Amino acid sequence: xxxxxxxxxxxxxxxxxxxxxxxxxxxxxxxxxxxxxxxxxxxxxxxxxxxxxxxxxxxxxxxxxxxxxxxxxxxxxxxxxxxxxxxxxxxxxxxxxxxxxxxxxxxxxxxxxxxxxxxxxxxxxxxxxxxxxxxxxxxxxxxxxxxxxxx
Length: 151
Known about the structure:
Layout: H1 5-23, H2 38-57, H3 61-72, H4 79-89, H5 93-115, H6 119-147
Helix pairs in contact: 1-4, 2-3, 3-5, 5-6
């Protein structure tokens, strides 16, 4: 299937816009002195999810709050990784970012619910957070691993 000039322009515009947005994101304060490979970011998110799960299982709202905050403000991969992802995923980068934003928003909501000691809201949003993680992994994990395999 051949793409029209307009379609090529739109795909390129989305990719460039995504790249610029990613390159200009602020790095959260706790991400200083942390390796920013995507693998290390994902490992940190897994550890924070385990802490979040532990906090939920023990009804420890302070632990839930801290873990949710770490998930919401996780370090981001370095600029070279972002460039590789944007150039490889192209127009799919917008969906990739939507899934990341969904997880971020649920983590923020969980943190707020933990402050209010609202266990029902924590659980509801926790399920949405995990669904967001799994959606991203099912759609992108294998492909992204291949794209970044030389890092």
